[in-house]
Write a structure and sequence with these properties.
Length: 480
């Protein structure tokens, strides 16, 4: 998980600060030394760390902080604000065409950074926003580069323009004309990369830039190479005058030094981040939200946006109606499971929750394979069995287990969980649960942990007090 090590170290520092009723200058400087070490270990550039720590120290030893009722919290606030500023301050979108023609986005970078795949992800993001993107194969050197772009383009339903292995400048110019004729309003040029920065590569990219005059030149760079990502950004910026950076594989970089150094070193904003292998695993980079994640404050806004874009509102309304009428089936259970999994891995979702550390997520021992097993079991059932699990006798359960490649005990466990959920939905529909609990359960149904029989039973035992019990409770309150 991104910034995992840095988050743990910073939280340790802040815990010490919060535990003190008042802070001295020595306390602040000691905390800053630990923060400096944490940032350097996260592979953040030395100059960036030096400037950052100096700025935070100067602000933290001011009278407003030292005399505050909660000085520890004030220091955290300052670090949060300075981290946000370090990464760019606010999100920066693409520079869109204003002349009515297509917006031209030129993707550059070294080989292995993920230009082809992440360029397609970016095109897919804009397609969801109602744009008509076109992918252009300008990498004529790497074996199978054109085919790779065509494959990901087909998976996303995005057209790919290619002219084989001819001059990339000719391809780029022809692609722009093609886009104008076919009403494509945003064009992504997938250019060639090298294993290292060289003169031939830069000359070719400069020729493409001069030929098509792109509105955006995005450097796609692998976050996992740490400080080398910053060095690559500086080299490409000097040759091409970049407009922004896209960091890939951020989910696999536990240090995060590149994300904290790129903007401060090059002055170019990080605009997008790749956070997984799937073709929808891409996000707009929000410096304030990323600072929140680094400091263990979570990222609720991104979680809400992810839910809004992935969860099917119509299905949610249908489910609510079924719960109200006590008609919740295994098929509904399966549909809910799919809805939740569309949002990404359970660990990623929990990582956006405020106050949940990486260590706590690891301690939870969430196994995504358990969810795969549940899906396999339900898919091995007939439609009739999903709608009416009561007919699942021993022979049927044995057949389902064989079809799903699991043990009969796994099938029995799923049925037990489902029966507990049915009892709960029955109580919810009949109004036996308190109103607040009913609403909470409707929102959490299908989430990991809510399928545990003991949890379900404990919640299911909750009742709204009857009239007699309510009168007794009111008398006790009056006596007090």
């Amino acid at each position: 998980m991104a910034f995992e090590g840095l988050t743990e170290k910073l939280n340790s520092v802040f815990t010490k600060l919060r535990g003190k009723g008042s802070l001295t200058e020595a306390d602040v400087r000691e905390a800053m030394r630990e923060i400096r070490l944490a940032l350097l270990e996260a592979d953040v550039s030395y100059k960036v760390v030096k400037d950052f720590v100096k700025t935070v120290t100067d602000r933290a030893i001011g009278a407003d902080v030292m005399e505050s009722l909660t000085p520890g919290q004030m220091v955290v606030k300052i670090v949060n604000e300075e981290l946000t500023a370090l990464m760019g301050g606010e999100a920066t979108g693409l520079n869109m065409a204003k002349d009515g023609g297509p917006t031209i986005v030129m993707l550059v970078g070294l080989q292995g950074a993920g230009k082809t795949t992440n360029g397609a992800k970016l095109a897919g993001m804009f397609k969801k926003k109602g744009r008509r993107p076109l992918l252009v194969a300008c990498d004529v050197y790497r074996p199978a580069a054109i085919k790779q772009l065509e494959v990901v383009g087909e998976q996303l339903g995005i057209p790919v323009f290619q002219m084989g292995q001819i001059d990339p400048v000719t391809i780029a110019k022809s692609a722009i004309e093609h886009a104008k004729q076919h009403a494509n309003d945003i064009v992504f040029l997938d250019t060639a990369g090298r294993l290292h920065v060289d003169e031939a590569l830069m000359t070719e990219l400069q020729n493409i830039k001069a030929a098509v005059n792109p509105h955006e030149i995005l450097l796609v760079v692998d976050a996992m190479i740490g400080q080398d990502a910053v060095n690559a950004a500086v080299a490409f910026d000097q040759a091409l005058d970049l407009t922004g950076v896209m960091l890939t594989k951020l989910d696999g970089d536990a240090r995060g030094g590149a994300a904290l150094s790129v903007k401060a070193t090059t002055g170019k904003p990080i605009k997008f981040v790749g956070i997984g292998e799937k073709l929808d695993a891409i996000e707009v980079f929000y410096p304030d939200r990323m600072a929140g994640r680094i400091l263990g404050m979570g990222d609720v806004l991104s979680l809400i946006e992810k839910a809004q874009t992935t969860l099917d509102e119509k299905k949610a309304q249908e489910l609510e109606e079924k719960i109200r009428k006590n008609r919740f089936t295994l098929q509904d259970y399966y549909d809910q499971l799919l809805q939740v999994r569309k949002m990404g891995s359970v660990k990623d979702i929990l990582g956006m929750m405020p106050g949940i550390s990486a260590a706590q997520i690891d301690d939870a021992k969430i196994n995504e394979k358990d969810l795969d097993r549940l899906q396999a079991i339900i898919l091995s059932m007939t439609p009739q069995e999903r709608d009416n699990p009561s007919i699942l006798n021993a022979s049927r359960r044995k057949r389902i287990a064989a079809g799903a490649g699991v043990q009969v005990s796994d099938v029995n466990k799923l049925i037990q969980q489902f029966e507990m959920m049915q009892k709960l939905t029955k109580q919810m529909s009949s109004g036996k649960l308190p109103k607040g609990i009913r609403k909470l359960m409707q929102q959490m149904k299908g989430l990991p942990g809510m399928d545990d029989p003991e949890t379900m039973q404990a919640i299911g035992q909750m009742r709204t007090p009857g009239p007699k019990r309510q009168r007794k409770n009111n008398k006790r309150k009056k006596k007090r």
